[in-house]
Amino acid sequence: MRKVLFVALSIVAGTAAAQAPKVSLRTDVQKQVDVNFDKGDTNNDNFISRAEIQAMTAKALQSLAPKIEAEFKTLDKDGNGQLSLAEFKAAAFSKLGQNPELTLQKFDTNKDGKVSQAEFRAPILGAFDRADLNKDGKVTAEEAKKVTGR
Q: Among 28, 51, 144, 135, which residue's Cα sits nearest to residue 101?
């Protein structure tokens, strides 16, 4: 639960980065969640299916490949190549890659095999609401720090 809250607040922080005092509005967070949902809902049926989750995961992992290669070079301090890149990628991808079944378990609250926009919104907006200690529709840096301890 604390991890979901921290991830949600990280999204909030990214959304609110352009604002002068660090305040996040619930409406802005909801808009960002909806944008992310729309990116995943490639067939525009207002649900994210197992196949769409797999496609999103594959795309995310593919975009990480250059970072993983750079991390390998960082980990191979003496440059002897003892840590094989294939093994490193396999470990990183398996750790970072998310099984679509786990995503469905997390978001598909009505267990119909797909994720509706409301189901997609619920965890992040719930975390936002828990962080909005004074219930004014904004999460300040102070509120976020109180809730996450960071």
A: 51
Is 11's pLDDT higher than 90? no
CB 120 within 8 A of CB 48: yes
Q: What is the pLDDT of residue 1?
A: 47
118: its two tokens: 């409301």
* Multiple choice CATH, 2-148, 1.10.1660.10, 1.10.238.10, 3.90.1150.10, 3.30.70.2190: 1.10.238.10
Residue 16 pLDDT grade (very low, low, confident, very high; cuts 50, 70, 90): very low
Is the per-residue pLDDT at 20 higher than 50?
A: no
